[in-house]
Each structure stands twice: as C-alpha cells, then as structure tokens.
Amino acid sequence: MRPIQMVDLKQQYQQIKAEVDAAIHEVLDTAAFINGKAVQDFNKSLEAYLQVKHVIPCANGTDALQIAMMALDLQPGDEVITPSFTYIATTEVVALLRLQPVFVEVDPQTFCIDPAAIEKAITPKTKAIVPVHLYGQAANMEAIMAIAEKYGIPVIEDNAQAIGSDYYYSDGRVQKTGTIGTIGCTSFFPSKNLGCYGDGGAICTNDDQLAAKMKMIANHGQKVRYYHEMVGCNSRLDSIQAAVLNVKLPRLDTYIAARRNAADFYDKAFAGNKKITTPYRAANNKHVFHQYTLLLEGVNRDGLHQFLAEKQIPSMIYYPVPAHRQQMFAAFGSGETHLEITDWLTERVISLPMHTELDEEQLNYITAQVLEYIHNH
Ligand SMILES: *Cc1c(COP(=O)(O)O)cnc(C)c1O
After folding, report:
1. For a pocket test of ligand 1, which of 58, 62, 106, 188 has the largest count of ligand atoms closer than 8 A to its C-beta?
2. Are the CB atoms for 259 and 288 separated by under 8 Å?
3. Which end of the chain is less crowded, N or C, counting CB atoms within 10 A of the terminal residue's CB?
4. Which class is domain 252-376?
5. Would the CA dihedral through 73, 76, 79, 80 be positive or negative?
C-alpha cells in the first residue's frame, strides 16, 4: 500500500508532470514572471469556469479577503459578521483592518454560518457579512442573500475551501459558489481543491466598479503607473503559479469527482455507526469535500487521532481553537462571546485523509482502523 497522506500532492503531480513542467518552462523561457500570458490566460479561464464577470488574481486567499474588505470602504469599528468556526484568515483580516469581528454561530449539520444567527447579530454598524463555505460545503446562500438584501449589507463569500461547488437555488437556478455574494474570495494554496505550487488567490465579482477598485487596490492603489489614487497593497499571482493553475483548472471537476468518490466510500463504511456522524450533504449545494470531517459522539477524539497516527494514518483537527477563543481577538472583546455549538463542534470533529489520489486499498485500511478504535473504546 502507498503511504497515506492527508493531501497527496506528489502523487497528483506525477499524473500531470509533463504538462506542468512544460507550462513552467514556457514561463522560464519567456521570463514573463509577473503578469505574463499565463496569468491572463488563467484569469479568462477562471471567469469562464465560474461564469463570473471579473476575476482579480492576487497573492493568496488572505489578501483576497483583505482587498475585498478594503474595496467596501469599511471603516475602523464597523462590524463584520463572520463564523468563529473557520480558518483564522477569515477573521484575521477583519482585525487587521481594525474592524470589529462579530462572531456568530454555525449550523450544527453543515458547519457553516447560521442565517438566523446572522440576522440576530445585525446592528446599524454592521457593514459586511462573511460566510465561509467550510470543508467544501456551501453556506445557505439563498437565506444569507435574502437577509443581506433586506438590510442592504454586502456579502463577502470565503470560498477558499469550496471552489468548483455548485449552489442550487430553490427556483432551480444553479450558480458557482464564490459568485453569489457581492464579492467572492478564494485561495490556491497547494492543498486547496484548486491548488498551485506556492501561494495564490483570487477575488471574483460581477460588479464592474468594485472590480476596477479591487484591481487598483491589489496594485498599490494605481490605475496608471506611478499615479496612486488610494492606499492599496501589492498582491499578485505570479506567472509560474498561473501556469500550474492553467494545467489544473481543466481538471478541477475530475478532482472534485475523485474527492466525492472517496467521501462516498467513507460514508458507506461508517453508515449506521451510532458514534459517527458523517458529513451532512445539504440539498442546496454540491459538497466538494475539501475536507472529510467526522463528528464523533462518545469517542475519545484525541485518542483516535493518536491511534491513527500509530497506524500511519494522518488525521487533523480543523480547527482546535475557534476564532472567538483566540488570544488574537481578546482586545476585540471576543472573550464575552458564547458560542455553544461552535465549542461543541470544536471538541468533536476530526478530518480524515482527503485528496484526489486515495485508492480503495488505502480507504479500506483507513476505515477499518477508525472502526476498530471506535469498536474497542
Ligand atoms: C486557506 C483559507 C484561507 C486563506 O488562504 P491563503 O491562501 O492561505 O491565504 C482563507 N479562508 C479559508 C476558509 C481557508 O481555508
């Protein structure tokens, strides 16, 4: 059996090596390292894939979120509603811009922000809502957009874990996640569903004005070189990363299918076990399984993690400390926040290996070991 990785990028690279190597060498040969043809090609392909008017590439997913918030003209003290049960980047940029994070509860089934909790948290100072499509499952965007429209608040989707997912509206419309809110942000960090071989990110919007502004912000606040209209930053996707993404984007749907196959295998193996809740699959979206995350009840979770490690099976706790309990936010008064569901989930989740190259032998082994531990403890 091949060694089991949480994410097996080496194995995936072997499948596309010739194409990736050629694409990278083309960049080397032309020396167009910044904003070269590869970047422009990728931009167009991603706009077509997502069916969105504007894609603005940038240096990473965290920058994407920061640029989105800067473009909305948020002022220090403005409130931003976000889940606490997420990767730190979502909430960190809120603090970085001296905005006030307002952490709200997630849905215990989907692990994504609870629309009812959003509405309860809205005040006159609320200036943005940031849902996160956690683990590859979309938040309830239809309900979130209805609330956002009712109160006139922009929505920034954190799509870093769900690129390629389809969202199904109740009226039958289908739209890609990350293109539903006012702005969508994503990351091409190597382990993401569409990952490059370094750092990368992108911002999407259908709003022409916001697109122009975000392009400017990502480029030192300039439209015309050396004429800086506003304070921006320096955030670029480099050509070598774009060249890798040009090879991988046409395969994204195949990669998602491979992840969903692995998830189906896991689901079947764990079905009916009273101590294990397998990932919920809401009917309103296509789960793209950035992570395959179990919810354990009456199991020593850290004991299972340790047991699996001894069997050469990596597993991860995403995330061991929710944002509202991070020291980073102490100065923002987050110690006063009580999020029972978030705390409850934090103590019970465990993510199993999930990537595009898992084979049946590996999946059999992983599921057998998980079940053995749970049976004996
Ligand atoms: C990965 C990730 C980010 C940040 O992306 P980087 O490219 O690492 O900066 C933001 N939000 C979520 C939910 C993520 O998973």
Report:
1. 62
2. yes
3. N
4. alpha beta
5. positive
* Ligand 1 neighbourhood includes 66 CB (under 6 angstroms): no
Q: How many Cα atoms within 13 Å fall on the side-chain side of residue 1?
A: 15
Report the b/e string of 28-44 with b at 16+ CB within 10 A. eeeeeeebbebbebbbe
Would the CATH topology of 9-250 be identical to that of 252-376?
no
Report residue 132 as tokens.
């996160």
Cis-peptide into 135, omega within 30 deg:
no
Q: What percent of the chain has pLDDT over 70?
A: 100
Q: Is 135 a pocket residue for ligand 1 (Cβ < 6 Å)?
A: no
Which residues fall within 8 angstroms of residue 310, CB to CB, at 6 or more apart?
A: none
Nearest CA to 67 out of 97, 35, 101 is that of 97
pLDDT above 90: residue 334: no
Helix, strand, coil share of the chain (percent; to 5): 45, 15, 40
Atom of ligand 1 nearest to the CA of 192: 1
CA of 62 to the centre of ligand 1 (A): 6
Considering the segment(s) 9-250 as one domain, its CATH architecture is 3-Layer(aba) Sandwich (3.40)
Model confidence band, residue 129 (pLDDT cutoffs 50, 70, 90): very high
Asked whether the CA dihedral 345, 347, 352, 353 is positive or negative, the reply is positive
pTM of the model: 0.97
131 CB within 6 A, ligand 1: no
Taking every pair of C-alpha atoms in the chain, what is the biggest distance, in angstroms? 68
Q: Is 52 in the pocket of ligand 1 (CB under 6 A)?
A: no
Q: Is 137 in the pocket of ligand 1 (CB under 6 A)?
A: no
- For the chain, the domains span 9-250, 252-376
Whether the per-residue pLDDT at 56 is higher than 90: the answer is yes
Q: Closest Cα to atom 14, ligand 1: which residue?
A: 160
Question: Would you say 351 and 316 are in contact if contact means Cβ atoms under 8 Å apart?
Answer: yes
Let me know if 251 is exposed, middle or buried by CB neighbors in 10 A (0-12, 13-18, 19+): middle
**CB-based burial, 333-358: b 16+ in 10 Å, e otherwise:** ebeebebebbeebbebbbbbbbbbbb
